Amino acid sequence: MAKDEFKEFKLVGTRPDRPDGLDKVTGRARYGADISAPGMLWAAVLRSPHAHARIVKIDTSKAEALTGVKAVITRADFPTGLTGEDWNLQENTMAGERALYDGHAVAAVAATSKLRAEEAVRLIEVEYEVLPHVIDVDDAIKPDAPVIREGAADATVPEGMPPNVVRYMEFGRGDVEAGFAEADLVMEKTYKTEATHQGYIEPHACMGQLGADGKGEMWVCTQGQWFIRKMCTAVLGLETAQLRVTPSEIGGGFGGKTTIFMEPLSLALSKKAGGKPVKLVMSRSDVLRATGPTASASMDVKIGMKKDGTITGARAEFRMQGGAFPGSPVDMALYCAFAPYKLTNVEHVGYDVLANRPKCAAYRAPGSPMGAFAVESLLDEMCRELDVDPLDMRLKNAVREGDTASYGPKYGSIGLVETLEATKAHPNLSIPLGPNQGRGIAAGYWFNHNGETSVSMAISEDGTAQVSVGTPDIGGSRASIALMTAETLGIPYEDVRVNVVETGALGVNEPTHGSRATFASGKAAVIAAGHAITEMCKRAANEWGIDPEAVEWVDGAAQPAGDNAGKFPPMSIAEIAGKMGSTGGPISGHHESVPEGVGASFGCHVVDVEVDPETGRTTILRYLVVQDAGRAIHPAYVEGQYQGGAAQGIGWALNEAYIYGDDGRLQNTVFLDYRVPVASDLPMIDTVIVEVPNPGHPYGVRGVGETGITPPLPAIANAIQEATGARLCELPMSPPKVLAAIKAKGG
Amino acid sequence: MRYHTPTTFEDAAQLAAQAKGLTRFLAGGTDVLVQLRAGMVQPDDLIDLKKIAGVSEITRTDDGGWRIGVAVPGIALGAHEGLCADWPGVVEGMELVGSTQIQGRATLTGNLCNGSPAADSVPGLVAAGASVEITGPGGTRTLPVEDVPVSPGKTALKAGELISAILLPPRGENAGDAYLRFIPRTEMDIAVVGSAVSLRLDGDTVTEARVALGAVAPTVKLVPEAADAIIGTTLDEPALEALAKVASAACSPIDDKRGTVAFRTEVAGVLTKRAALIAKARAKGDTA
Ligand SMILES: Cc1cc2nc3c(=O)[nH]c(=O)nc-3n(C[C@H](O)[C@H](O)[C@H](O)COP(=O)(O)OP(=O)(O)OC[C@H]3O[C@@H](n4cnc5c(N)ncnc54)[C@H](O)[C@@H]3O)c2cc1C
């Protein structure tokens, strides 16, 4: 139950204000676009208006002649000879021979003002030869589909597959056909989901500076400064350590800011403009057209079930397009699709497909929501058909510690059963529903990633502590890391300051992604604090003239461990710190590793909807998220993650989608038409934090950030079926589609 | 770009008549400034109307109707008791525009002259039988609101002409109006369909009616057949069905990112029924 009731810790599980809160509510926090420097230039980017076109000629002479223009770049200004993902990143940053999607960058300008740069961009003349394009994933694997790139397929793709299939996978175990033969009911359906964008409020923004000596600086809104460093230097052919990257505060990322889109442009422009800093800020249209949404998917699922709800066999075949480059999360989607269920017979097949769309990026539990939409929708229909309670069916098949996951490995400690039981016990489930209302239930899964992690902490002269982490704080990780560090050191929360630092200050850190910051940076901070404690115990032991092993750390002070050790009053952290200069110098702790012991998280959502039978409009009446957090370090921010995931999932389920015209151009490039939910669309989202501690983390933390976006898609589809009798297998379940489905079933 | 602040409508009309390039008037700016920043329009002359005396006022006319200044923001309409009592449907259309921030600036006149077929305040004005006073280099004229928009983004105003006021007729007894729009979300969206009904009752029987639809044709549309379908009825089930049918039949929408032809056509009927019932309840004294 709620961590607030936990008594074994003083700070872990409490809800103090976040350290970055005041700056954020007073507008003092500095986001990407807030960074400026003397002599700074502004950049603007020319983007392809075509979904697919050969670039015949680019004439930049008029732009270059405009007063105030300091640099114009095209692909010709980039190094050649890159391969693999480095080439993909470069090609996506600036189109080469062909523009591969509407919005693909073709040229860029740096000028003395933003308006001047934009004016110069309009003066660049590009001659295109428009080529046939393909947008839909199923169209992209048809025999006559335009080929995005010959030879893009990797070694996994068997001979004879359509040329836009660039990665292929199949895995499973048991005998699915035998499983289906055992079943009382076998159902098979096809599902489709559209691409959606993370919809972070802060558009991408950076200021880059690069000298002729190959030394550079970048200030950027990102989830991972080391990724920015690695990718920018790869794309520009620089030495990695020569670029120093400082992250700004971040107004949301959800996975979309774990890669580069336009950052190298500012560096390349800066170099060409004699090393002046160049600022580049995307508009919302740039963000929607040219950064990475998630993939769109087309999925076949077949499941066999016994009358009592036992799943006897399951098969999933997923096709996903992630834009004009390899990298759709079809693998992750397959890993998660059946992850909640104990299966003897299971088969997965996946296709990663190219289409003329922007290069997809990670989006909260990449792939998992699509897979869940297909699998959890079909399971729900089968429960209706067999008259089995959907929660009981999930409990009956739920995976437990020691079970083999559908995707291979053995589960360690997991909390699915506890989560389903907490759902069953929740009062929302017994609220009566009225006409045109329906309740939907679905489960979901996501991993917890470890990744390279390097953390330093140092004790100040007054006994307060600073922690330097490399994972940008998106969802309150500074608060959580401060709580864990303070708990470990035995000092007040307010005495710890957590700083997100630049690439020069620590070893390599992976971004804040994979629900890892509180797990990985948190774990490293606790270990680092332990090193400092050991050192402080040693300083006290030296002063007392006793063995360091005979000193223990209790409540923020060193004290002799028992009477045998000697009789000395406790020596506080402030006392030890105050004389560090004369007792051996600075006191600090450091830890770097790829931390073991990740803890995955299961969730279960229950949604009540009302559907207007005459307009097909769905209103979310009530929404419940139940999820295993391992242990909630700061329960408010865990709840925030649950609610945020649900809110994004609701948007994806109901109205969000990339809408393309026949010309392959994206039609809805602003928030007016890219319809994320607004505040008044959502009820207060109820949450229950289940706590099955992760034994792999000193405080039991699991990754909690991503699972929450997984169940909403099917949960809402399931609720709409109950409200209307109509089953929707395609997202978004927008009013026109729901109304058409109601009419089709003769309602 | 030249920015002007005339103090009379005559001066504004003169400036507009003499301007050579692209001209825009600036009322609340919630369309113009957004279009300017998005690079959609780059006016050569921007004529701000907010320095003209009386543009922010709502006044009773001699015949008992209302005269609404061209810079009166949505929030001021909603705060005006007399206007809300007479024309709740007109006010609610304007109040749907944007958010609190937008409401502090956006005007009826701007909404009308921007020329969007989905403009939320326009069906209500058309159903109400509102007209506009136009000032031009040659003097003033009036025009029914339904004749102002001629195609998406285009109005019947001639070069040098501008609207100097919106005029609402006297409301009279036993009458009510209502506007409903369909959007997939709850706010901050563009009408997929809009429908306004204004009617007068004698007992339970409709004696007068005007029905206007938005977002289902190139311009906001007055639908006399829809009015005919309910005049003389008590808005019983058959009358409502007939109303929905003619309202749907009057639609000639497009398929676009915001809605399909089939959906808009269907929902136009649904909303018109619902708006008629609200208008009736208001005519009977229901203040909701
Ligand atoms: C966030 C946001 C949300 C919005 N939501 C909605 C919505 O829900 N529904 C909706 O209908 N609209 C919406 N709009 C659009 C806009 O707010 C409305 O159309 C508003 O009523 C325009 O009024 P304005 O005074 O700001 O017009 P302005 O921008 O000042 O002017 C608009 C047009 O009218 C012309 N004009 C202005 N005054 C005169 C005059 N006296 N004579 C002749 N021409 C004139 C101008 O030249 C210009 O072309 C929204 C806009 C924003 C930015």
Structure description:
The complex is a heterodimer of chains A (747) and B (288). With 747 residues, chain A is α+β, with helices and mostly antiparallel strands. In chain A, strand 24 and strand 25 form a beta hairpin. Chain A contains 20 helices and 26 strands. Chain B has 288 residues and is of the alpha+beta class. Chain B has a domain of 109 residues: Enolase-like, domain 1, CATH 3.30.390.50. Chain B has eleven helices and 14 strands. The radius of gyration of chain B is 19 Å and the shape is globular. The structure holds flavin-adenine dinucleotide.
User: And the CATH topology of one domain in chain A?
Assistant: Aldehyde Oxidoreductase, domain 4
CATH class of one domain in chain A: Alpha Beta
Q: What is the assigned CATH homologous superfamily of one domain in chain A?
A: Aldehyde oxidase/xanthine dehydrogenase, molybdopterin binding domain
Which band does the percent of strand residues of chain B land in?
Answer: 15-25%
Protein chain pair with the most extensive contact, residues per chain = A-B, 23 and 20 residues
CATH fold description of one domain in chain B:
Enolase-like, domain 1
**Spatial arrangement of strands, main beta sheet of chain B:** 4-5-10-6-7
Q: How does CATH name the architecture of one domain in chain B?
A: 2-Layer Sandwich
Let me know the number of strands of chain B: 14
Q: Radius of gyration of chain B, rounded?
A: 19 Å
What's the helical proportion of residues of chain A? 25-40%
- Quaternary status of these chains? heterodimer
Q: Can you give the helix content of chain B as a percent range?
A: 25-40%
Uncertain runs of chain A are 1-6
Return Rg of chain A in Å.
27 Å
User: Strand count, sense and closure of the main sheet of chain B?
Assistant: 5 strands, antiparallel
Order of helices and strands of chain B: EHEHEEEHHHHHHEEEEEEEEEHHH
Q: What is the helix tally of chain B? A: 11
